[in-house]
Amino acid sequence: MDLFVILVLCLSCLLLLSLWRQSTGRRTLPPGPTPLPIIGNILQIDVKDISKTLTNLSKVYGPVFTLYLGLEPTVVLHGYEAVKEALIDHGEEFSGRGSFPVAEKANKGYGVIFSNGKRWKEIRRFSLMTLRNFGMGKRSVEDRVQEEARSLVEELRKTKASPCDPTFILGCAPCNVICSIIFQNRFDYKDEDFLNLLEKFNENAMNLSSPWMQICNTFPAIIDYLPGTHNKILKNMESTRSYVLKKVKEHQESLDVNNPRDFIDCFLIKMKQEKHSQQSEFIIENLVNTVNDLFGAGTETTSTTLRYALLLLLKHPEVAAKVRKEIDHVIGRDRSPCMQDRSHMPYTDAVIHEVQRYIDLIPTNLPHAVTRDIKFRNYLIPKVSLFLARHLGALEDPKFVIRLQVSSKVNTR
Question: Is Metal-binding one of the keywords UniProt gives this record (predicted)?
């Protein structure tokens, strides 16, 4: 009986604390649906289609509203105007990365995607500079993309025009481009290490978007105690980390500071340059996690875009025919396309952008956070314990979609 009384008291205190925190926070935050104690608005969210839920809520509460995911308030920005005002007009204040507990457990705040503050700025700046100027006069990223495109075409030709599922092949191509930039060399599509790496990235991409992951990120305390797909994600992340670390050690043994071969070499050279700085962010932990981030950000997103583009072109053969005509006119069939062709191919460029708009690749994006207390549209958004999720409802905003369709004369719907 004593144990039962203690449990009841603890639960009552937890409920009161939850009610107090919610009532205190809601005084200055944007409006939103009334949350329940502890679980917040979880029951009002369709975890299988969060995008649709956010769109419906924006019609009731406006483009800026508040949801409670568990005990924590989440301010949602919906539509072009709200997103632009926050991320462009107040870019510095909204530049923080929000909480993503499962990823944080694996990378512990290192890397570029889930880091914050000084670390994020330095690693992001270095990564962008290295990717833009990669090789110091060696082969450019464009050369590697062209090479991989030729390999992709050859793999497709092997099907001899018979029905096939191109998902695997379309996943290999972007992953191999990243491999060539990070590890210097591309892999054969049947290489065991390459296939194992690709399998883990694909598996994690699928599991990270599952309803169970939404629950884990809302109630992170359960991560250490309950079974589920989050454990598979963490295991896969550790496996890829081990593989990258092995590659880093190989690079350290053969490093030539005067002749960097790839991204890892450039990072190792930067580590040597800053080895006497105790505050340097260029350490092994950041290198391994940044490499993982580059794979995670570039592989699944690109392969999914390619897959949907193929599907939409099959669905709209009249659009495919016009793209083919423009390609034959500008590029022909005797050379590979290059970035200089883009300005001469407005129709193809418009189709690519329309595909990206139509598929709404990452509807809720990654969570953002404000870096300090800020007054936004007459609401006070506090730095402490607030996580910002942005929803790119701008992709379906009639005002801007119409402009895109008129200018491009393409509508894959």
Answer: yes
